[in-house]
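Morning. Coffee machine broken again, so started the prediction first thing and wrote up yesterday's gels while waiting. Chain of 256 residues, entered below exactly as on the submission form.
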Amino acid sequence: MASLIQAWQNFSPSHFPRLLAGDEALDADEERIAKHRNYKDFIESLDFGSQSTKFHLNLLPQPFVGNLSQASIFILMLNPGFSPGDYYALEKEPEYAAAIERNLAQQNAADSYPFFFLNPQFAWTAGGQWWRSKFRAIAEELARRTNIPLQQAFQRISRHVACLEMYPYHSQGFKKPGFKLKSKELMCQYVKDVIVPRAQSKEALIIAMRQAKAWALPKDSKNIISFGAVQARGAHLTLNEQGGGLAIVERLQGLS
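Came back before lunch.
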């Protein structure tokens, strides 16, 4: 089993702050973190309404979304974003929290939507709205080419696409930590040792949407697409050779 997966399977979702073992240095940087226990605590705090790069350490981390053994399309990002609704959804929607925990433990292979943000049940969440908008054009084109209903196209995306985050902790804006984190080290090593070889052998597609240079990907594989700075700001999966969307559609056409 990959060290990345094993580390997150050993992670305890009920322990606060919600830090992976090896990331404790982040908890000591009080100016860079927020530790609100629930939605009420957050909206009554000075953090509510502010523009911030603080990491929210009491939200469940999101190092990846999707089932990594099932997926063959990997989108590389920087870190999960933040919305006030993230606290509300985690607190008020037990099935949503359970889906995140299954995802963290990689016990989601049998889920109807392993990429849980594409589950219609969670379409109202910030993550659900963001990811459905990113995949919308891809789902529509896949539905057109394969003559399947649109929601079935979203479901196929959910089975075969995974998102990997360089840093697993939620923040509204991003500022790089000034020290090493075990979570980042494990993720970068996983991409280098597991995902890149799969792409080079044509078994997988990699799309580096954020921080392409920091992922240190090979440049000689057509199965590895790296966004430039302008593309990364928009983070759109467009239906052209540079946008990654067309490559995703073409790979998904041969899958079920």
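The mean pLDDT is 95. Going to sketch it on the whiteboard this afternoon.
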